[in-house]
Design brief:
It is globular and about 35 Å long. With 160 residues, it is α+β, with helices and mostly antiparallel strands. The longest helix has 10 residues, at 82-91. The protein is 16% helix and 34% strand. The protein is built from four helices and five strands, in the order βαββαββαα. It has a five-stranded antiparallel beta sheet with strand order 1-3-2-4-5. It has a single domain, classed as Gamma-glutamyl cyclotransferase-like (Hypothetical upf0131 protein ytfp, Roll).
């Protein structure tokens, strides 16, 4: 457990939203994952899918993606409001206490919408910090959820 810091003592009013309306999730928050986003927001409907480019790492029962590399990683896109973003920041260890595992990145990517069309969208992505993945093995799969489920690894209860 982390030692409390001044950041962990901040009030909810100290939290700041990222300013975008959608989040791209590539790990346990995907539909069918142990922490699927629908558990946080019942009734939420995916806007579509996108591909993130970087390097995917195995952090045990959840992944870490860094935006360095050329690997294509499947992500689901969901609508994002301030309340959901604040909950996600908690899951990813960014707020109210920053655990130093992930950071928030805004990327603009084409999203294959569920309606069949494609649209460029600004997306929030939780990117693993380099120190988080430094010793973690790389995953040679574009779909982390299928890869993880195929391994038969027990899932945990929080994260990416």
């Amino acid at each position: 457990m982390s030692t409390p810091t001044a950041l962990s003592l901040q009030k909810k009013s100290d939290w700041q939203p990222c300013g975008v309306d959608h989040v791209a999730v590539y790990g346990t928050l995907r539909a069918g994952g142990v922490n699927e986003i629908a558990r946080l927001r019942p009734g939420i409907i995916s806007t579509g899918r996108t591909t993130l480019t970087g390097t995917l790492h195995d952090l045990g029962w959840y992944p870490g993606l860094i935006f360095q590399g050329t690997q294509q990683v499947l992500a689901e896109v969901y609508p994002l409001d301030h309340a959901l973003e604040q909950v996600l920041d908690g899951y990813e260890g960014i707020w109210p206490q920053n655990t130093g595992e992930y950071t928030k990145r805004i990327v603009t990517l084409p999203v294959a919408l569920t309606s069949g069309s494609t649209q460029m969208m600004a997306l929030l992505v939780y990117e693993a910090l380099p120190a988080t993945v430094q010793q973690a093995p790389m995953i040679a799969a574009s779909d982390w959820l299928a890869w993880h489920q195929g391994r038969g690894v027990p899932s945990g209860s929080t994260a990416a």
